[in-house]
Amino acid sequence: MSFSTLTLKPELVDNLKTMGYDSMTPIQAQSLPAILNGEDVIGQGKTGSGKTAAFGLGLLHKLDVKRFRIQSLVLCPTRELADQVAKEIRTLARGIHNIKVLTLCGGVPMGPQIGSLEHGAHIIVGTPGRIIDHLQRERLNLEDVNTLVLDEADRMLEMGFLPDLDYIMAEMPRERQTLLFSATFPKQIQKVAEEIMFEPVIVKVASTH
Ligand code: ADP
Ligand code: MG
Predict the structure, then answer these.
(1) How many domains in the chain?
(2) What is the pTM for the complete model shown?
(3) Choosing a second label site near 144 at 20 to 30 A (CA), which of 30, 61, 120, 135?
């Protein structure tokens, strides 16, 4: 199915074309209408199914560029994944006036990250531990976040990030859109989803094509 069945910002449509994304993958086709409609969505699909663009298009479509506030937070289990996600979001955002995507992950010095935070951002992509570090130092304010994405939620839980996720979620508005993506959907994730999401739309795809 073509992306043109969705009502996306024209810049996003252009960027998808440039990226060679001619049609939606199954998880994109099934989740994007609900995501763009502001609903909470659980997306389950194995690696390579195109989950990043599903939530990336959702948060970019909704973003108010003129409000230079952190409006979206994407949590990933590792720095490598966070870097990949930030890269894809930046590519999707090309040409949309000055969208600032900042990555906040561990394993790199705090100082430059604090400097970048002082300059501001629209979208933060990061790992839970480092996000908490910035919250505790009061360098990061999540009061204006209206979209939270938990990417690779199963891996985050496996890595023991649940208490961190609870901490971070307490720092942002309850009224928000929450998108949860995962390759698997074990009991523990179902329980978390029940606690943090509101009537989520569940999308499950078996394979990429
Ligand atoms: P996942 O997060 O589900 O593992 P990714 O978002 O990393 O998957 O996407 C996997 C690959 O598919 C990436 O190389 C990405 O550029 C590509 N891709 C995503 N959506 C599309 C699309 N609609 N058309 C073509 N390629 C796509
Ligand atoms: Mg992914």
Answers:
(1) 1
(2) 0.97
(3) 30
